[in-house]
Design goal:
about 350 residues, mainly alpha, ABC transporter involved in vitamin B12 uptake, BtuC, 14 helices, about 75% helix, transmembrane transporter activity, ABC_BtuC-like, membrane
């Protein structure tokens, strides 16, 4: 059965909310405002004239122009990373039917970080492309391990078992990361800021390295959206609608791992973006993953970009890494969601 026929048979998820157009317009406005804030605000306030002059006259060599151009690449990078993490969170919540699943909560980010740190310490890697492949391997193996542990025992991979398995795995892998980094000064100096998550080192090279992985992950996520709607009805119902649940989970999980692994390799383990963005979208638009996936990308881009701006303002004249800001915001929200939902399945 095709994806289109699947989506026609699940009426629960096939109605576009009447207020979707308003939500889309508001999201675009917020996205534009977050971009403007990222370009203007920071340790040095950029005026409107300085911003327009730097954009309209890119060849002019001045301090103001260099600040604007650096912030442009940083803003683009934060938008792409936020979108990737938003989609990854939506996919992981869908395939696990867990309302509080997130790459950071399930330990996937930490697994990616461990492999990158091991590559730096033992293999002496130094390029973004090498970081990405190691991060993808670490993220994939961690996801398999967490799902395997969470599936043990009666009831299979229940939400609470997956969260506990992810939390325990993340704690263990974080200890390994620290154990590898602390005795090695060169590794610690190189990645002490990366370890908490930051978009401050963004460049057009890192963006071009990341873009292919983002494109692949987005395409797979959009294509699997209708079938993931059927999966939300339960495995038996999805199978009855012609969905191969095992294959679907595998493909969607690979897309989620690619997205969060690539982000982790270049920006560090930034947490809670997938959780925050997907929950915001689901509360407003409902459970249709054909809407949740693209709108989670927009919400994730907004949340990460604004978090980066907040970190710059709080830490001025330096900056507070965006991973610290998202953890500070996301941790209490996770507790509230867990208490309110009682970790129910989707």
């Amino acid at each position: 059965m095709s994806s289109s026929s699947i989506s026609e048979n699940i009426s629960l998820h096939s109605h576009k909310p009447r207020h979707f157009s308003k939500v889309l317009v508001i999201s675009i406005v917020l996205l534009g405002l977050s971009v403007l804030a990222s370009l203007i605000l920071g340790s040095r306030l950029v005026t409107w004239d300085e911003l327009t002059n730097a954009i309209l006259h890119p060849g002019v060599d001045s301090y103001e122009s260099s600040v604007v151009h650096k912030r442009i690449s940083r803003t683009v990078f934060s938008l792409l990373c936020g979108a990737a993490l938003g989609i990854s969170g939506a996919l992981m919540q869908a395939i696990t039917r867990n309302p509080i699943a997130d790459p950071s909560i399930l330990g996937v980010n930490t697994g990616a970080a461990l492999f990158v740190v091991c590559g730096i310490a033992f293999l002496h890697i130094s390029t973004a492309s090498q970081y990405i492949w190691l991060a993808l391997a670490g993220a994939g193996l961690t996801a398999i391990f967490v799902f395997g542990v969470g599936s043990m025992g009666r009831g299979g991979p229940t939400p609470i078992k997956l969260i506990l398995a992810g939390a325990a795995t993340s704690a263990a892998l974080s200890s390994l990361v620290s154990a590898i980094m602390i005795p090695r000064t060169n590794v610690m100096d190189q990645f002490r800021y990366w370890q908490v998550g930051s978009v401050g080192a963004a460049s057009w090279d890192s963006i071009s390295t990341f873009a292919p992985f983002l494109i692949v992950g987005v395409i797979v996520a959009i294509v699997t959206g209708p079938a993931l709607n059927a999966l939300a009805l339960g495995d038996e119902a999805a199978t009855g609608l012609g969905v191969r649940t095992g294959t679907l989970r595998l493909v969607a999980a690979v897309a989620g791992v690619i997205l969060c692994g690539a982000v982790t390799a270049l920006a560090g383990p930034i947490g809670f973006i997938g959780l925050l963005s997907t929950h915001i979208v689901r509360l407003i638009l409902g459970a249709d993953l054909r809407l949740i996936i693209p709108m989670s990308a927009v919400a994730g881009a907004i949340v990460l970009t604004l978090s980066d701006v907040i970190g710059r303002l709080i830490g001025s004249p330096g900056e507070l890494e965006v991973g610290v800001v998202t953890a500070f915001i996301g941790a209490p929200i996770l507790i509230i969601l867990a208490m309110r939902s009682r970790v129910r399945s989707l």
